[in-house]
Design goal:
Order of helices and strands: HEHEEEEHEEHHEHEHEEEEEEEHEEH
Number of helices: 9
Keywords: Signal
Shape: globular
Largest sheet: 10 strands, mixed
CATH superfamily of the largest domain: Alpha/Beta hydrolase fold, catalytic domain
Radius of gyration: 21 Å
Number of strands: 18
GO biological process, one term: lipid metabolic process
InterPro entries: AB_hydrolase_fold, Fungal_lipase-type, Sec_MonoDiacylglyc_Lipase
Strand content: 15-25%
Helix content: 25-40%
Protein name: Fungal lipase-type domain-containing protein
Organism: Synchytrium endobioticum
Length: 399
Amino acid sequence: MYTIFILLSAIALIQRSTTVPLPQAPLSQSTNMKQQVDETTVSFLRHQARLAKLADCLENQDDEFTLIQQEEEIAIISILRDTQRTNDIAGYIGVSESDGKSVITVAFSSTRGMKDWIMNLNLLDTKPYVDRQVELCEGVQSNWSLIPSGARIHKGFYKAFEAVAEQIEDVLRGFKMLRGCDEVERVLGVGGVRFVGRSLGGAIASIASVYFANLLKPSILVELISFGSPRFANPTFASWMGHNSLIQSYRVVNPCDLLAHVPPRSRVYQHIPVEYFVDDTSSEDITYKCLSVNKGDEMLESPVCSNAVSWFKLGFNSHNYFRVEDCPSECPDENGGVKILVNARGVMIFAASNTDKYDQAKRMLLAVQVPTYHLFVVSDAEITIAFDGSLNVIPRLLR
């Protein structure tokens, strides 16, 4: 199946490509473009790979609130649904703790079945976002006037993003994170929003990160972490995204991952910055940051990292990032369906799947005499409560 996808991608792109040769990075600019990153960055990327893998582990379930035990805890507060995707699941939205602040993670699942392959093979391109007029908060409207007129992206991946965009908007609006909403950072200690995904999920995460970077408050950090993402943007869009200071981007690539090289590089499709090149042959996961090359207004792909690998060495065995293979186990539900997440600042989040669970959580709050808490209604059936409290409250909650 992978072979069919690659062959059809190449045939379609050859038919659509222009006679103008793709610009190559000048060799004079190629020196010092490959910089080894520190262990802190490697550890961060390794953990994000586990969160991306988790999006492929979800089953179609009624209870949308689970607490997953990994290196850090993440509370899944919403499952992204899309009937175009395998198992009708496109990913999840979760809350975790990072550097003493709460971080929203939006993770997208990779290719898992025939429905996803049909989406992959929709190789037409489209101009993104401009037809989406979104009411943010307090009457503030989205504005796409700054997107370049020639920006185009993969239509199949864009349709996959559009199918879940409104679900993500509803959650972020519920947390008062969109432009025009009342401030909530002082309550939740929100540190940012991360978009993660592997393969197909990496492409969708990339498209989503640009979209929401323009909808979220400027004070909220937007991070993109993709693993083995296929090319999805034309050079105009890729360069525009690369110059977008609102997004901190990590495009992670293993040396011989064939899927990261399709569709072939051309005037139709090009990778976005910034590439992080992982030596998956070493147990230390030595990783390099590979700088793009500026040529006029264009940001060209780095010539010294994954593009320096011969096509004859590419395959599918290199698509497993940081050796993340197994799905994580779910923590036991110790509170009758009410999930608890605590970060280092003592900010706690309750997640309840229906009003009965919410009432149970509220009774627990009253029982331990928590002074303040805040209610966010994500949808009619999904309720999240966040409140400021002390860590010594936790033993009483768990009795």
